[in-house]
Write a structure and sequence with these properties.
The structure is a homodimer of 411-residue chains.
Chain A: H1 7-15, E1 33-34, H2 45-62, H3 66-69, H4 75-87, E2 94-97, H5 100-113, E3 120-124, H6 130-142, E4 147-151, H7 156-159, E5 164-170, H8 182-191, E6 195-199, H9 211-214, E7 218-221, E8 235-239, H10 283-294, H11 301-322, E9 328-329, E10 341-345, H12 349-358, E11 361-362, E12 364-366, E13 370-374, H13 382-410
Parallel strand pairs in A: 1-11, 3-4, 3-5, 5-6, 6-7
Antiparallel strand pairs in A: 2-8, 7-8, 9-10, 10-13, 12-13
Chain lengths: 411, 411
Amino acid sequence: MTLPASRAECEAWDARDPLAPVRARFQLKSGLIYMDGNSLGALTHDSAARARAMIEDEWGNDLIRSWNVHGWFDLPHRLGAKIAPLIGATADEVLVADSTSVNLFKLASAAMMNRGARHRIVTESGNFPSDIYVLQGLAALSGAAIEIIAVPRTEVIDCIDESTFLVVLTHVHYKTAELFDLPAITRRAHASGARILWDLSHSVGALELDLHASRADFAIGCTYKYLNGGPGAPAFLYVRRDLQDQVQPGLAAWMGHAAPFDFTDDYDPAPGMARHRSGTPSMIAFAALEGALGVWDDIDLRDVRRKSVELSELFIGCVEALGSPEILLASPRAAARRGSHIAFSHPRGYELMQALIARGVIGDFRAPDIIRFALTPLYLRYVDVWDAVTILGEVLLSHDRTELLRRNAVT
Amino acid sequence: MTLPASRAECEAWDARDPLAPVRARFQLKSGLIYMDGNSLGALTHDSAARARAMIEDEWGNDLIRSWNVHGWFDLPHRLGAKIAPLIGATADEVLVADSTSVNLFKLASAAMMNRGARHRIVTESGNFPSDIYVLQGLAALSGAAIEIIAVPRTEVIDCIDESTFLVVLTHVHYKTAELFDLPAITRRAHASGARILWDLSHSVGALELDLHASRADFAIGCTYKYLNGGPGAPAFLYVRRDLQDQVQPGLAAWMGHAAPFDFTDDYDPAPGMARHRSGTPSMIAFAALEGALGVWDDIDLRDVRRKSVELSELFIGCVEALGSPEILLASPRAAARRGSHIAFSHPRGYELMQALIARGVIGDFRAPDIIRFALTPLYLRYVDVWDAVTILGEVLLSHDRTELLRRNAVT
């Protein structure tokens, strides 16, 4: 792949980018290069408008009747159906509800109750830890001798055995963006008779995904990163169609009942995904997400992935060209093994990121020495990447000079 | 209590009502008498404005930095501190998080893990069923021989025994508004060595509550009824200060960790209420609630309860004066035994409520024959109650006439 070699060439690439018009759907402050979309996606105009209509018209004017007249009750399913094509699922396999952690709890508890004689959950150590905390809480609660095997990612495959009932993995690593081979590991889990649950928080909206083709059992994911649903936006969960009626969440509440308005004392799980609804969800949070998901209607994920790779390669190439000795790529070098953000290590990563933010380049820092940058194809331009690395170069130069002076002063 | 005896007298009562000015803080469509605030409270202007600022300024402009610069991270505690005085708790005893059902799960699972040799949960049958579904799910998950004793409310006290580790009760009944004697039953639970958890969903913002005085262990509640936090607004949970460090939720996630940004693999619960934070919550939903809670700053709950009782007595008195034979009070007649809504039974309750709604009086129907009306002192006027019952009288008269004609035609 030959990438742009000058700012002017970046402009030319932007001019012929099929995703370029999508940028206008976002509210983006001028002068800011926002590269933290892997943590919180930017606001779309549609999201703001939809939330406002929900609050002022639906809640404000139509009040309680909105549950029927504005279809609030079915919104968790309608939003699930909008996410389905982004992960290679059918509309009746995805539900929007609660947070990613709560959804993991529901599905892992369901798998636990179906575990038979197996007692192990296999997962990755050093992953974003909410998932492992959820599993630890669940194991403590069960009272049974559930064993959680948390190992470095390279050892995961070898730990899946006949005692494993569930494998829980995050597809794209939150820090390094390294990808697991989703189809291969799913096959490996199935070969041992284990179920697999994929956390797609850093994948959805950034990569092409095909849960159906891989026959993945369960998935969860968040909507506030590449889907731009808003801070703490409601999460989604997926259960493969043929498993849905075998799987009952340990966290069950009224909206997941087969007949929620009968108000009977005995829990009878609703068919399909509806049983994973729990309490009453925030319609305002749902509305913001609904607005954001509308943007995806006309978008081809192949364009998104292609541009994500190009932006990432441009970013890495430009950083390498800076020739600064202390900034090291902490993500895989091969694009095929990376998600849509890039991590570098730098001994003074924290100060570096603070300096970048002060200059209008927003990424983030993860202890002890990692700086992360998201390449979000819907609203980031080639020229933004060029400018971001130019600023990074200036910041590094100033840093290197200060370091040199400091060292000379010391010696 | 001598209540207004004419519409003009109602107007006079409104003129001297200390809560009258609060009505202007709500967006209320003219011509509508909204009596479903026990299900979904009305929109305040502050709620709409705060949500808009959250979306357009904080998320839209400041993006990820808002977690720090706008204090998003601590918002669950700040909102908890605002709810605390409404339930007789201290600021560090209340947290806003998730839904009422999920919060019940957290606290009931914590109690279950501390149950020692006890194995029973005592609760009420025929209550709003989400609470019992949560307990049933938890029992199934535990794998242990947890017994859920669900009995009619009059039998609850006698079922609390030395094998009971937890009593779960809803303070105000969702259908009839009948009150449990919170201090007395709390004492009874403690006398047997059991913990007690109160669901305050239909109480908070409608009644004076003093959890501290009663030494209640746990409480949960929703914020979309009398607190007007918006459809599906985030819920709250309370743990008495001296119990907080003994209680660990079975549903644990990253925001409840002692050092959430260390991203370590082992769950270490945060001190105090913070351990009950789970995944990342919707800041937009929180903002709408924050706006709504601001209204309570200047309000004395004694005024709220006094007016609630007056509006309820006026409503019941006027309905009794209609002399319609088929509409029967399904709530306790004594105000001291009632919350802030009133239920009546009527053989054709569903049709009756539809006719009322068509005439602009919004209450709701609960199968098989209950119609419910909420008396919300912050935005309902004495004159609204007068007008609502006048319309109810017209609807009943028309109904009774139709019934008479129908019967005559049949015979």
